[in-house]
Specification:
This protein has 70 residues and is mainly α. It is built from four helices and no strands. α1 packs antiparallel against α2 and α2 runs antiparallel to α3. The longest helix has 18 residues. 29% of the residues are buried.
């Protein structure tokens, strides 16, 4: 389910539908933390996707923070 949510978010980021993408990523992030914890690769993937959103919105500092945490 987590991977499916991340896959749903990815094309939305490309379409600049950042609010919709963020909603999917936040849900995936919450599920990953509850089931697997912050050290799971899916959590890193969520952070990376959030970083992409911030990067595309020209929020480089926020993107970098998420990329480094991922």
């Amino acid at each position: 389910q987590v991977d499916s949510l991340i896959q749903l978010a990815s094309p939305l980021i490309g379409q600049r539908k950042y609010d919709e993408a963020t909603a999917h990523i936040e849900t995936a992030k919450k599920l990953t933390l509850e089931k697997f914890g912050a050290n799971h690769p899916s959590y890193a993937s969520c952070l990376f996707q959030q970083g992409r959103i911030f990067h595309n919105m020209n929020k480089a500092a926020d993107a970098e923070r998420l990329y480094l945490e991922a």
